[in-house]
Design a protein that fits this description.
Strand content of chain B: 25-35%
Largest sheet of chain B: 6 strands, mixed
CATH topology of chain B: Rossmann fold
Number of strands of chain B: 14
Structural class of chain A: alpha/beta
CATH topology of the largest domain in chain A: UDP-N-acetylmuramoyl-L-alanine:D-glutamate ligase
Structural class of chain B: alpha/beta
Distance between the termini of chain B: 44 Å
Shape of chain A: globular
Number of domains of chain B: 1
Largest interface: A-B, 34 and 42 residues
Distance between the termini of chain A: 28 Å
CATH superfamily of the largest domain in chain A: Mur-like, catalytic domain
Number of strands of chain A: 17
CATH class of chain B: Alpha Beta
Largest sheet of chain A: 9 strands, mixed
Number of domains of chain A: 2
CATH class of the largest domain in chain A: Alpha Beta
Helix content of chain B: 25-40%
Strand content of chain A: 15-25%
Oligomer: heterodimer
């Protein structure tokens, strides 16, 4: 290792430690920034030591859960993941994780057993691809999210296409072929990436149309053909613009998936999946609910196949899976069963609302709407989400967060009544929700990203579980 | 009298132009009519559908992504622009937000110099200064007729009003039409254009009622709008006044 790398690792480790000493947040951003400032190639150098290769996972929704699934599969297969599991998924977050894993001499221990599993922010994917040339890239889906930060969804789609085009150039990588790309066949914007791709593609999709919905969601982003611009038609819609799509004008259509979910049963606490693979079949009982988690499992299975991980550890890891940070996490607090379900954009939130509604019974729901940078400062997306889905089942609701008043107004329109309270203080909102929930009963908390971090910290303290950067 | 009142709303390209929660605007128009016993009739028009200028009391169009906006622009000019212009000249109410606001101007000049023709309903044009120039993004508050309108703006294009155009409002905080002249939006007869979404109408009930009043007066000669419960609306409006731009 050159002295620059060693200095960068030292600075990163020191910054991370100082940041953790002085407060919250796990020190991920600071440590990564400190290291990158001294050695911009540090991510490439450290990731390059992972003997089993690198897989990057990106997309609007599901990348944290899919990455965690990949990490558990790799562990079950006997590998030791290098995984940015805190959810800090820009270059600095990846750098911070690597700096923590490396020795002061810039060496990753036991390199032959290491696999790099990188959750990557959708806007950061081009930069990561250029730096590390992953062996595999998994794309989950593409929905509008934080227009004020990412710009239009089309901009993200274009940047992915450009990044992949560059990976196909002969000199992109001194050795070997372009990355294998694992694509959601049911998302027209993601499937489009494979249309002219010279490397290997693996498509996954849902064949079982018994879980399709009649109405198309209001939050649907790719309604027109990416090739010819005509409006797409669907024979089945699963959620948002995810479904069995085709363009009647130019004939472009959903590719036949290599990994097919042939049968799915969505239960109260789990999801049974029957999956047809290029060679053979797989049955998984996933201990998570909601069709979106079945898609996450399909993406992880695709990633495992592309990384040549064995089938048995894949099934074992998925069946023993527990939720990622703030995604269907459960806490026992003050005798109540508290579910935290992240809802950060209209499509993701609609899926969460459908999942909550699918289990019968009356609900108590605490919604949070924050407008921090990481949430997106523009909260107009709440008008595209269908809060109406849970209204008939809800007997107590509170609007909280930095934009509680906007949320209360949206809930009024969803039929929750004219007098929804708006509570900006997180701790007060949480206590009010706990007080409204009888002991032994369930409270659902549906926050945006930064609100999830805040409320999760309060819940973890009260439930006595570990903080995320110590977890693992 | 009020029992027989009807408002006919035409929503242009609801599936292709709905990027910033524009559905909230339609939900608000419906709610504020139905709470007063006014029948609300909604017609949605998409690519290829013709528009009958006699068929609507209020026309709404929202924002779109660039790709969809190009498809919409072609269709607008080919099948609807003349009829919409005729309706606007006959004092039908029009609300155009964000992308539609730009499309209803005279032209849109891309950073390459290429000019795309607009529907020419408003005497204004929009210039895109190129990807290297900052988009105008953030919370916005404007002064309008002694009141305020609040919301969010996110646009790369800079809009400049022509001599025949009157601005809708003056910017109190935020950027507005172009970030330089302190103006926001446009008014021509009963047609309104603005960059403000958020959604626009839910937490600006006075502006929503202003549009409804114009449309109902024209149709029924009766603009009476009984007060309704606006506590949640007023609270959201007040909270937005103190947001950072």
């Amino acid at each position: 290792m050159n002295p620059r790398t060693i200095a960068a690792i030292f600075a990163g480790k020191a910054a991370g430690r100082a940041s953790r000493l002085f407060g919250r947040g796990g020190g991920t951003a600071i440590a990564g920034l400190a290291a990158l400032r001294l050695d911009s190639a540090i991510v490439r150098d450290l990731v390059g030591q992972a003997g089993a290769g690198t897989i990057a996972i990106t997309g609007t929704n599901g990348k944290t859960t899919t990455s965690l699934m990949m990490s558990r599969i790799a562990t079950a297969a006997g590998l030791a993941p290098l995984h940015n599991r805190s959810g800090s998924n820009m270059m600095r977050g990846v750098a911070a994780m690597l700096v923590e894993e490396a020795s002061l001499l810039g060496e990753i221990a036991d390199p032959a057993t290491r696999i790099a599993i990188l959750e990557v922010d959708e806007a950061t994917l081009p930069e990561i691809a250029r730096e590390v040339h992953p062996k595999v890239i998994v794309f989950t889906n593409l929905f509008r999210d934080q227009l004020d930060r990412y710009g239009e969804v089309d901009t993200v789609a274009r940047s992915w296409g450009t990044a992949l085009a560059r990976e196909q150039l002969p000199n992109a990588k001194q050795q070997g072929s372009p990355p294998t790309i694992v694509l959601n066949a049911d998302d027209p914007a993601v499937a489009h990436l494979g249309r002219a791709y010279a490397g290997r593609t693996l498509y996954y999709g849902v064949e079982d149309t018994s879980v399709s919905v009649d109405a198309i969601d209001h939050a649907s982003d790719f309604r027109t053909c990416l090739d010819c611009g005509a409006e797409l038609s669907y024979t089945a819609t699963f959620y948002g613009h995810i479904g069995h799509w085709r363009c009647a004008t130019c004939g472009n259509a959903r590719p036949t998936p290599d990994i097919q979910l042939t049968r799915v049963v969505l239960g109260d606490d789990s999801t049974s999946m029957e999956i047809a693979l290029p060679a053979g079949e797989m049955r998984v009982v996933l201990p998570l609910t909601g069709l979106y988690n079945a898609y996450n499992a399909l993406a992880a299975i695709g990633g495992a196949l592309a990384m040549s991980l064995a089938r048995n550890p894949t099934v074992t890891a998925l069946e023993g899976f527990s939720a990622a940070f703030g995604r269907q996490e459960r806490f026992a607090v003050q005798g109540r069963d508290v579910h935290v379900l992240l809802g950060k954009n209209p499509t993701g939130l609609n899926q969460v609302l459908r999942t909550v509604a699918a289990n019968g019974g009356q609900k108590r729901i605490l919604f949070f709407l924050n407008d921090g940078i990481a949430d997106g400062r523009d909260i107009s997306w709440i008008w595209d989400a269908d809060y109406e889905i849970v209204q008939p089942l809800t007997d107590w609701v509170l609007a909280a967060g930095t934009r509680a008043e906007d949320l209360a107004l949206r809930l009024k329109y969803a039929g929750f009544g004219d007098e929804i309270d708006a509570e900006r203080n997180t701790a007060t909102a949480l206590q009010r929700a706990l007080d409204a929930t009888p002991v032994g009963e369930t409270l659902h908390i549906i926050p945006t990203y930064t609100a999830m971090l805040d409320v999760r910290e309060l819940l973890a303290t009260q439930a006595g579980s570990s903080r995320f950067w110590e977890d693992g | 009298m009020s029992g027989s009142r009807t408002l006919r709303v035409t929503h242009l390209y609801p599936r292709l132009m709905n990027i910033y929660g524009d559905r909230g605007n339609i939900m608000t128009l419906r709610h504020r009519c139905e709470a007063r016993g006014i029948t609300f009739e909604l017609t949605e028009l998409s690519i290829g559908d013709a528009f009958d200028p006699q068929s609507a009391d209020l026309i709404f169009a929202g924002g779109a992504q660039d790709r969809e906006q190009r498809n919409v622009a072609q269709d607008l000019l080919a099948t609807k622009a003349d009829a919409i212009r005729e309706a606007v000249e006959a004092d039908v109410v029009l609300l155009a937000v964000c992308g539609a606001y730009q499309l209803f101007g005279r032209f849109y000049r891309e950073s390459t110099g290429v000019e795309l023709a607009g529907a020419g309903i408003f005497d204004l044009h929009t210039e895109h200064p190129g990807e290297k120039t900052k988009r105008l993004i953030g919370n916005i508050v404007v002064n309008w007729e002694g009141q305020t309108i609040v919301g969010f703006e996110n646009h790369g294009g800079r809009t400049h009003l022509g001599p025949a155009a009157r601005s809708l409002a003056s910017v109190r905080s935020g950027n507005g039409n172009n970030g330089t002249d302190g103006l926001e939006g446009v008014v021509y007869r009963n047609a309104y254009g603005t960059y403000i979404h958020g959604s626009l109408l839910p937490k600006n009930p006075a502006f929503a009622d202003h549009l409804l009043g114009l449309a109902l007066t024209r149709r029924n000669g009766d603009a009476e709008l009984a007060p309704i419960d606006d506590r949640a609306e007023t609270r959201a409006h007040a909270a937005a006044l103190s947001l950072k731009p």
